[in-house]
Structures are given as C-alpha cells and as structure tokens.
Design brief:
single chain, 353 residues, alpha/beta, 2 domains, 4-stranded parallel β-sheet, 3-stranded mixed β-sheet, 3-dehydroquinate synthase activity, DHQS/DOIS_N, DHQ_synth_AroB
C-alpha cells in the first residue's frame, strides 16, 4: 500500500511503516525516546513493535490504564511529571502505541509538554486506524464530556500496522467498523454498499486504507474544521451525548465509541429524513444495517432527558445553536443544521420502534 500524504506528515502501512520509522529515527537526533502504552498494548503489541526497531536505541516505556474513563487531565499530569522526572526535553520524541485513548491523550501530552515535542502515532485498534490516524486532533475528556480539552497538532508520522488488529476482540472491531460505515454515509454511497456486504474482518486491510483516504481528503480541504470537516461528525452530536451519558451512569454498561455512534447515526438519520429530505428507503437501510451489527440500546425517558441535556456541550455548537450534520442522500451530507426540539423525542421513538 502506498503511503497517504496528509498536510505535514504521511500515514505509512505495514512494512513501509517500520521502514519509515527506522529511517526517521536514524535521521533525527532525539535526546530521548518514550513510548506511551496501556496495559493491553504493553503486552500484545509492544514486543513486536520493539523487535522491528533497528539499532541500539533506548526507549522509556510509560504505561497508563486503558479505557475512556482514564482519558483525563489526571492521567496527563502523571505523564508530564514522569517525563519531567526522566529529563525529557524539547528534543525528545514520544511514540503513542495504542487505541484512540492513547493516541488522543498521548498527542495532547506531547503537544503541551515543554510547549510541544515531536510525537508519532501508532494506532492499534480499528477505530484508531480509521479515525485518529488523520487530522491531528488531540485531547482529553472533561469528566464524562468527550474531548472538551485539546489542540489540533500534527504528528511526525502515523504508522498503521494491521497485524495489531489480530489482538482485538470482535466487539472492538465492530466499534471501529461503525466509523468506516460513517465514511460511506458521508462521502461515498458505493463504499457504504461495499462495507454492508462484509461479513468478517478477515480482509479488512484494504478497507482500512480506503477509509483513511476518505478522511484524509476531507481534512486536507479543511484542517481546522471550519466547514467541510464537520461532516466527519455525522452521528456524533447525539452519539457523543449517548456515550458521555452511559460513561457517567451507574445504571448502564459503558458503551464503546462505535456502539454509541451507531445509535447516533440512526437518530441523526431520522432527523435527516425529517429535515433535509433523506429518502425513507435510505433511512430504513441505515437503521437496519446498524441494528444488524450492533445490539439495540435501551433508553428510559429519564435517560433521553439526560442525554439531551448533554447536547449543549457539543464542540460544533456556536452562538447558542446546536449544530448537526445531516444527510439529504447517502453520501451527501449537509452541515450546520438546527433541529426543532420535539424531533429529538421522535428520533428516539423511531430508534426504539
């Protein structure tokens, strides 16, 4: 697979990824090298990764606890203090080896330590490969509120090594697949149809590549999310609210990102049907596709009220308006749409029906 060139870096795949990394390490004069992992990637991915690194280089391994609940400023403070105690300076390099929590948080830590040190992302989950690999978004959650604190800052490179996907459970793969389905919905109806036909993840490598291409094309046109990049948030306005609500709830099992976004895409598909003219047949297609892959989530009336109360924290909001990305057809999104409040309840009723 050819490397995908973004604004100031490239996404490298498979053997080319390790070649690019070794060339970069050889050509650079880093004062110290760090790898951020969680307990899963420490065990499942770090050994293979280290075996592919050439030369007699010393890396300090910094381990954090896995899970969205640990994507917070407390974890960042621990890492900043550890980096300082190990004499990291502005000529250090941080490699983030993990899923979206590690790459988002690790990128934020690198971007803010000493006002910024170089970092490389090595996404190890399907979600991180197709979502966090492009765009330079870094950050952490504020309590249960998703990605409220962060900066857009580009890595030196991104390395996508699909063999790491073999370490994942089916549920984690399905979570990442939701973002791939989203790429079809917002950009390419043919890609949507192709992904719908996939029954296993045995031949996912080329589709990962296709999704990275789609996201990269969008980000290159709008690096700081002023207009078209917003389309990548389809399903995320309500989906993030669902995810945040379940994250803080003591009465519900925490949802994975893709599971919450799958709910959000059905809900926002319904809003698209009502507001921007998405054909009913395409709405039914969206709902049936996601419900065939993702377990239906139960919502009480109190849950729905709690979820809707979180919408005011969405990052796309401006001037007091809650802004949605909707579809007028599969593959054709429209940004900055406001929704009459009564339609929220209708959307949840449609989901539950």
């Amino acid at each position: 697979m050819e490397s995908i060139v973004s604004s100031s870096y490239a996404v490298h795949f498979n053997k080319k990824a390790y070649r690019a990394l070794n060339d970069h390490l050889s050509a650079s004069s880093y004062s110290s090298l760090f790898i951020i992992v969680d307990e899963n990637t420490y065990e499942e991915c770090l050994p293979d990764f280290m075996n592919a690194i050439e030369g007699d280089l010393h890396f300090e391994v910094l381990e954090i606890e896995s899970g969205e609940i640990n994507k917070n400023i407390t974890t960042c403070t621990h890492l900043w203090e550890t980096l300082s105690s190990l004499d990291a300076d502005r000529k250090s390099l941080i490699i983030n080896l993990g899923g979206g929590v590690v790459t988002d948080l690790g990128g934020f830590v690198a971007s803010t330590f000493k006002r910024g040190v170089d970092f490389i992302n090595v996404p190890t989950t399907l979600l991180a490969m197709v979502d966090a690999s492009v765009g330079g978004k870094t950050g952490v959650d504020l309590g249960p509120l998703k990605n409220q604190i962060g900066v857009i800052n580009q890595p030196e490179m991104v390395l996508v090594i699909p063999s790491f996907l073999k370490t994942l459970e089916e549920r984690q793969l399905q979570s990442g697949f939701a973002e791939m389905l989203k790429h079809g919905l917002i950009r390419n109806a043919k890609y949507w149809e192709t992904l719908k036909q996939l029954s296993t993840f045995s031949d996912i490598d080329t589709k990962v590549y296709d999704s990275v291409v789609i996201k990269n094309e969008v980000v290159l046109r709008d690096p700081t999310e002023q207009n078209i990049r917003k389309i990548l948030n389809f399903g995320h306005t309500l989906g993030h609210a669902v995810e945040s609500y379940f994250l803080k709830s003591e009465n519900h099992e925490t949802l994975l990102h893709g599971e919450a976004i799958a709910v959000g895409m059905i809900l926002e598909g319904y809003l698209s049907y009502k507001i921007t003219g998405l054909p009913e047949a395409e709405l039914v297609d969206i709902k049936s596709t996601f419900l065939s892959r993702y377990k239906k989530v139960s919502f009480s009336n109190d849950d729905i009220i709690g979820i809707l109360n979180l919408l005011k924290f969405d990052k796309k909001n401006s001037h007091g308006n809650i802004n949605f990305v909707l579809l007028n057809r599969i593959g054709s999104p429209i940004i900055d749409q406001q929704i009459p409040p009564n339609l929220y309840v209708e959307a949840f009723a449609y989901y539950k029906d």
